[in-house]
Design a protein that fits this description.
246 residues, 7-stranded parallel β-sheet, 8 helices
Length: 246
């Protein structure tokens, strides 16, 4: 399987940040892209810009989206949708925020992957790309967020083993700090989140992560880029007083 054999991609969390950048990169490479997100105005703007198809909906409700997802027949899935709830700490966190974090960061990508793999296996081609975090690879601040991304990491590792012999590849991209709306939409203490989001370092941009995704997709058929850990040059795990995030 080469990238020329892959032609149809679904990207979740497509209305901003890494998701929107990935849609643009895929569309620019000739992919037929289905951008999935909840903000219809942003989906419309993205479609007008790059010509992608759009699907408005909540990744936590795969059943409501199943007809459109099945009809699209994707051979690439980028599980990008995610939230940073609890990144500021677990003490006093609202139970609903914990549930949302696991539903969106863990359950939704697993359910969507399970749903789309039926068609991928039938067509004998496919590539699953999970957007994780360095918080899922290392012992860092944030028990809730790091816990969700650790679960996604183990899912990616085990899924790759489960799919051996099918020709379907699995890649996990684990970024550090990226300039996105991450802190603005996370649930937690507003003042703490604002302080955590402020940094003077040169952060990675969403397009940098999209480039890593395209690199993995373009690898030769006999090569699976399993895990990519990427950080801003000025960020190092355990070496800088910065909270690493997706």
């Amino acid at each position: 399987m080469a990238i020329s054999d892959l032609s149809k991609a679904i990207v979740t969390g497509a209305t901003s940040g890494i998701g929107a950048a990935t849609v643009k990169a895929l569309a620019g490479d000739g992919f037929d892209v289905l951008a999935l997100g909840r903000r219809e105005d942003r989906l419309s703007a993205l479609s007008a810009e790059v010509g992608c198809k759009t699907l408005s909906g909540d990744v936590r409700n795969i059943e409501a989206l199943s007809d459109e997802l099945d009809a699209f027949e994707a051979d690439v899935l980028v599980n990008n949708a995610g939230v940073g709830h609890g990144i500021d700490g677990i003490a006093g966190i609202n139970p609903d925020a914990i549930q949302d974090a696991f539903d969106i960061n863990v359950v939704a990508p697993i359910q969507l992957t399970a749903h789309l793999l039926v068609g991928m296996k039938r067509r004998s081609r496919g590539h699953i790309v999970n957007i994780g975090s360095i918080a899922g690879l290392h012992t860092l601040f944030s028990a809730v967020y790091g816990g969700t991304k650790s679960a996604l990491h183990r899912f990616s590792q085990n899924l790759r083993t489960e799919l051996r012999g099918t020709g379907i590849r699995v890649t996990e991209i684990c970024p550090g700090r990226v300039t996105t709306e991450f802190y603005q939409v996370a649930k937690g203490d507003t003042e703490t989140l604002q302080k955590m989001g402020a940094t003077e370092i040169r952060e990675m941009q969403p397009a940098d992560v999209a480039d890593a995704i395209m690199f993995a997709l373009k690898a030769p058929a006999h090569v699976n880029i399993a895990t990519i850990e990427m950080l801003p040059t000025e960020q190092a795990v355990g070496g800088v007083n910065l909270v690493p995030t997706r």
